[in-house]
Amino acid sequence: MINSLSYINPLDSINRTRHYLILFILWPFVAFACALTDYNHKEARRVVYFFLVYYGLSFVIIGTGVDAYRSMLRLQEYSQLPFREFLESFNNIYSSNETMDFYEMFISFVVSRVSTKHNLLFGAYAAVFGFFYLKSVELLFDRFKERPGINAFVLMLFFAMIIPITTINGVRFYTAVWIFFYGAIHVICYRNPKYLLLVMSSVLVHWSFLSASAILMAYYFIGNKNYIYLPLVIASFILPQLISPYIQVLSLRFGGGLQSRVEMYTNEYVLEATQQEVQQLAWFMQIGYDLVYYYLLIALAVVSIFYRKLIDRVMEKSILSFSLLFLAFVNFGKSIPSFGNRFQSLFFMFATYFVFLVLQKLPSQKMNILVWLGLFPMLLYTAIVLRQGSESINAWMFMPCIGLPFILPSLSLAEILFY
Question: What is residue 278's predicted lDDT score, i.e. its pLDDT?
């Protein structure tokens, strides 16, 4: 006898698909909002994915100093590039001063065969980013369905906002983050070596993930040895300032094409320029990232000590161990600000996932004091991310009728709210 709870009527699926399709054509944003409230169903998940791609297709570039503008110029250059010259350019992809990787180069060239407009390029970027982004968020959502609660809900929402779709402005690194995270979770929690290939593919998206992949490989063979990782974490708060003078010397040992990439991050002028950029950030932006960082440090410590009885599965123990190792990696990397600070967001993701898994087990449906303490840091961080992302969000996306962003002049949401 078929279990009525597990039986899915094909007609229901067809009707749901038809309704979402009609609603998406009439008003994409409303279809997206409805799909979020109905995310249990695969049809709703597809609508959310299509809306992320729709955002990419309507991507707004309002300045010449952003990465997206340089991507647009490169797309136009590639439209004039013969296929043979494109293949030859791969020989120098890591030996030139260009900040490109295989992924961006390949996508840009393929799109340039069809169009020179940046909308299609960022639609392709959003399609890849959105796939791994939603796959990763669904890791939390599927567990949330099993045991819903306010603590898990808040942490899941924050997890989704750590690196949202609007970060495709810097498409290489942040796409690599989601590819790495999704693959790493299967390696860490389920010891599935097949996902090591997915993890390594993140290197093709951004070369710096060679280091993160090496950290994961080290963990894969060492295992959950916290007596090794804890001393590393403690040392990482002290040693970065001591070893920073040797970073440039060590970079020379890389040799070959990667040497120039390492030098781009370790050059004294680059380090000084990066520090000046950080100093010029608004105070609330600086404190927003710092508050989340220190909150998650406290959360890891509190959960590990006071909720250790809830850390009863290999999954939680594994995520905790890797989070400690990755925290040490991030801290050591902070001697190169544009390197360690970027990977810090990936630490946020692993730490949040760990806290989510543990606090979800609490029997009480009330908000835990640890989550209460994290509300302000998480809200401030989310506000900063949304403010930055509003620069590229096309305001016409929120209006009825699909396609308005393609026929009307570009209008950034930031231009309406902040300028």
Answer: 46
CA-nearest of 176, 206, 169 to 68 is 169
Per-residue pLDDT band at 7 (split at 50, 70, 90) = very low
Structure tokens, 318? 């594994």
CA dist., res. 112 & res. 85, Å (int): 14
Residue with tokens 């989550």: 371
What does the alpha-carbon distance between residue 166 and residue 184 come to, in Å, rounded to a whole number? 23
Considering only CA atoms, which of 134, 154, 137 is closest in space to residue 377?
154
Closest CA to 94 of 255, 247, 257: 257
> Are the C-beta atoms of 378 and 292 separated by less than 8 Å?
yes
The structure tokens listed for 240 are 């970065």
What CA–CA distance (Å, rounded) separates 104 from 260?
A: 18
The first and second tokens of residue 169, run together, are: 């402005």
DSSP-derived letter for residue 364 is -
Residue 145 is predicted with a pLDDT of 92
Start-to-end Cα distance in the chain = 63
Structure tokens at 367: 């908000």
% of residues, the chain, pLDDT over 90? 63
Helix axes 195-205, 171-190, angle to 10 degrees: 170
**Residue with token string 């060492």:** 222
Q: Provide the 8-state DSSP code for 64.
A: S
| DSSP string for 22-68 | HHHHH-HHHHHHHHHHTTTSHHHHHHHHHHHHHHHHT-----SSSHH
The Cα 351–Cα 355 span in angstroms is 6
| Cα within 13 Å of Cα(129), Cβ side | 29
Q: At what angle do helices 283-306 and 337-359 cross, to 10 degrees?
A: 40
Neighbours of 282 (CB within 10 A): 10
Q: Considering only CA atoms, give the Rg of the chain.
A: 22
Contact call for residues 54 and 25 (beta carbons, < 8 A): no
pLDDT at 323: 97
pTM of the model: 0.90
> Is the four-CA dihedral 275, 280, 283, 284 of positive or negative sign?
negative
Tokens representing 236? 């990482």
| Residue type present at position 137 | V
Tokens representing residue 152 in the block? 């898990």
| Residue 362 DSSP code | -
**pLDDT tens, residue by residue, 312-358:** 889 999 999 999 999 999 998 887 766 778 899 999 999 999 999 99
